[in-house]
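As a warm-up, study this chain.
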Amino acid sequence: MKTQLTLSQKQTLKVINLIGIMMFALLSFNPTYAQTNSTPTKEVISNERTIKGLVSTEDGALPGVNIVLQGTRTGVNTDSNGEFTFPVKLKTGDVLIFSYLGFENQQVTIKDDTTFIKLVLTEDLVEMIGALDSAKPYKSKRKKN
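Now compare it with the structure written out below.
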């Protein structure tokens, strides 16, 4: 059996529904806040620095010395005055390798206070002539006039 609602009951039901919808709307729209970082920001102090230097021998400045960061292909050559500025910033513990034909290779480890390197390369004996083939006798040829 169907029961019919009277007009006052219908109005009461509508008011209750309207109050329910308003309560839902009021409680569902809370203010939203942007995400914040809860950890304090720390300023990072970089220990990377530009390295400059001078490479010489006992006789004076040495132009064209190869300077390479160990384990990489990054490097630079000294200028005509034997001076250089390394192209990338280096950090403590990096190793620079200095090489030049006729001189011993030297390694310099970057320390906390290193910003300028003054290096004197020492001469090395280099064998420039290979083995001679002595199987055939050598004869000098003279032109006959």
